């Protein structure tokens, strides 16, 4: 415009200024209209003709480049390029005349516009592909590849953005409690299926969510708008407590925190939700453990009742039989009196042992020397061991070994194990007793050189009513195990057929 004004070549300067302003304004429209490229071409053509200036070729080429780049239809692009060339050459003809129009110039202009069209489409295709790849990378950086939900990083970014906008919200962290066990038992494919199903169900149940994300391996985050309606909060908890576990078939736990009621920053909100989630998981774990413990107790009670009934039924049957015989003989029980009394004593002893095993009782804990307890046991068993033809060898520790104990229970424990060892060995057997200690514990080892215990029986010797003796009740070692537990100790047994058996008992030293 400045050039044409200085040279006075413009036919109508105000109109030329208006056309230039119209040309510049056409690029300000955001919406793509099909007529806009043709309007620009018409404007440039008029500017070219009114200004009588042949220096507009770069403007033609740049505008054509822009319009072809934004035009996705390839056929329209070639039509537009041909129209640009035609308008440009027509203006050159009108300004210079046919005699001044060199054909080499015409060919050169056509080559210019054709090259622009080809290069523009190639550039457009390359840039479009790069833009698509960029969008895909951005999408993958936001989404979890398995579920299609937002990932951990994107959930933090969006939560931060919502809090910055002062948006009232409720953050829910959901943990799939049974998923790890399912991965172990049924494989990762089953776990991945549950995760996909969980993602779909969350999108269905929480349609009004601000966003839903996979927060971790088996955790999800749901962000809901904060509402004051109590029924909405009840509906939310109903979905989490009942509907979601039923639909997925797995147990879930969750933690909830709301903004701005519970926290004013993203970190505070997440920390509170994670703490609430941990508390819920702990409560769930404790309830499950309590249920398992209750089931174990019921199972043990059932085993004890079954064993007790079996053990008592035998002597009762014997007594009943003798009474029936005595009735037939005029109630003269003299011949069977001793046998009946033996069976009654057997039931009495069995009942006493059972009560000792099952009845809770107070234990008088005091600090005593474990060495003194072993000496008392040896004194009590020495005559019986001699009667069987056995020997008891004792290797005591150098230091005094003091243990917080109930002395009577401790003697009963050691006496029972030594007695079992003497009964298990054949003639000329040896029972070895040894005391050792370290900084915290004292260990009692009682070993015999008897026939040993088979492996399938070794796992059952502490079970109530399990015995290999003809006259045993099967409660002796169970009582021993309970005494060790009451003293915060451990009881282990090692046995090898043909070599013997070792009982290893460990107690904490008294402080």
From TrEMBL:
Keyword Transmembrane set for record: yes
Membrane-crossing residue ranges in chain numbering: 6-25, 46-66, 78-95
EC top class named in words: transferase
Domain GGDEF: residue ranges: 167-296
InterPro entries: GGDEF_dom (IPR000160), HATPase_C_sf (IPR036890), HATPase_dom (IPR003594), His_kinase_dom (IPR005467), HisK_dim/P_dom (IPR003661), HisK_dim/P_sf (IPR036097), Nucleotide_cyclase (IPR029787), Rev_trsase/Diguanyl_cyclase (IPR043128)
Gene Ontology MF terms in the entry: ATP binding; phosphorelay sensor kinase activity
EC number: 2.7.13.3
Reaction it catalyzes: ATP + protein L-histidine = ADP + protein N-phospho-L-histidine
Matching PROSITE patterns: GGDEF, HIS_KIN
Residue ranges constituting the Histidine kinase domain according to the UniProt record: 307-511
SUPFAM superfamilies membership: ATPase domain of HSP90 chaperone/DNA topoisomerase II/histidine kinase (SSF55874), Homodimeric domain of signal transducing histidine kinase (SSF47384), Nucleotide cyclase (SSF55073)
Keywords: ATP-binding, Kinase, Membrane, Nucleotide-binding, Phosphoprotein, Transferase, Transmembrane, Transmembrane helix, Two-component regulatory system
PANTHER family: PEROXIDE STRESS-ACTIVATED HISTIDINE KINASE MAK3, SENSOR HISTIDINE KINASE
Protein name: histidine kinase
